[in-house]
């Protein structure tokens, strides 16, 4: 059996799987779990691969450790999405940070408990508050300057989460972040769809002094997150003593953080006037 998915407008990917372990239709999306000898359990949402056990370390370490190791003294983090628990798990490697996780689809949380247990256990930590709610509604109701970091940990920017990538969302994010706050969100892939990446980067940077894409590995491909910041720069202000003293990491280190923001010349040219460095 093979899983096939479209990557941008020009590519497709095929993955050998052994069996489908689970299938359901929640109020928001179709959710499936497949078993793979190479990738472990694979989460598929609306026919797109969202997460694999093998790729979880690189994805979650890069979406969470980069902002936490850039901010001078993070104390309160908001994760929009995050129902698998991986982002919260990474932030919990650091002391004295409280975390709000706002997941739209409770079925994602339930699936994680059964098929991604090492991730989901973080959601039961005393420093984590899980709320099942619409992320845009939650942030609209949040107080001004109430968070140090916001992480948008959702699986697609084209589905029920689309409003989390619009300019109105970034205006709200700017409002609820403190004066030195920063945000990390999905950036698609500049290799697979540069126009889509430009649109995501433009929207993310609309209310921030810094807006930069950075790379991470996922299923043998280079994908992108976007870091938007009011003050701190992700390479100039990286906290080395924090970044290099985290125990039991698989992918992230301070050198990876700095190098992940280096882009090929043709991408730098394509993003000229869009990326804010």
Provide a short characterization of the protein structure.
This protein is an alpha/beta fold. 28% of the residues lie in helices and 32% in strands. A hairpin with a 3-residue loop joins strand 4 and strand 5.
Written description of the protein model:
With 277 residues, the protein is of the alpha/beta class. It folds into two domains: 2-51, Spermidine Synthase, Chain: A, domain 2; 56-270, Vaccinia Virus protein VP39 (Rossmann fold). The protein has helices at 56-68, 86-91, 106-115, 117-120, 135-141, 167-176, 194-204, 240-243, 254-260, 265-270; strands spanning 2-7, 11-16, 19-25, 30-36, 40-45, 48-52, 76-81, 98-103, 128-132, 147-153, 177-186, 210-218, 221-229. Strands 9-8-7-10-11-13-12 form a seven-stranded mixed beta sheet, sandwiched between helices. Strands 3-4-5-6 form a four-stranded antiparallel beta sheet, covered by helices on one side. Strands 1-2 form a two-stranded antiparallel sheet. Strand 1 and strand 2 form a beta hairpin.
């Amino acid at each position: 059996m093979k899983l096939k998915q479209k990557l941008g407008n020009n590519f497709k990917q095929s993955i050998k799987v052994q069996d489908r372990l689970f299938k359901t239709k929640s109020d928001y999306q179709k959710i499936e779990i497949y078993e793979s000898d190479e990738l472990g359990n694979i989460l598929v949402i609306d026919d797109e691969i969202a997460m694999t056990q093998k790729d979880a370390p690189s994805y979650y370490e890069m979406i969470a450790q980069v902002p936490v190791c850039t901010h001078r003294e993070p104390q309160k983090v908001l994760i929009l999405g995050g129902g698998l628990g991986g982002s919260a798990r990474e932030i919990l490697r650091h002391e004295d940070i409280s975390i709000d996780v706002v997941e739209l689809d409770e079925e994602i949380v339930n699936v994680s408990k059964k098929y991604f247990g090492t991730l989901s256990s973080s959601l039961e930590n005393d420093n984590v508050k899980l709320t099942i709610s619409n992320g845009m509604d939650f942030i609209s109701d949040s107080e001004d300057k109430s968070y140090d970091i916001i992480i948008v940990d959702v699986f697609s920017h084209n589905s029920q989460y689309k409003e989390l990538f619009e300019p109105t969302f970034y205006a709200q994010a700017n409002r609820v972040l403190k004066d030195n706050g920063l945000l990390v969100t999905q950036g698609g892939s500049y290799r697979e769809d540069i126009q889509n990446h430009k649109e995501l980067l433009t929207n993310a940077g609309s209310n921030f002094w810094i807006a930069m894409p950075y790379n991470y590995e996922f299923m043998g491909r280079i994908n992108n997150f976007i870091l938007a910041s009011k003050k701190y720069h992700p390479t100039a202000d990286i906290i080395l003593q924090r970044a290099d003293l985290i125990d039991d990491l698989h992918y992230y280190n301070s050198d990876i953080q700095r190098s992940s923001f280096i882009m090929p010349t043709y991408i730098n040219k394509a993003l000229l006037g869009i990326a804010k460095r």
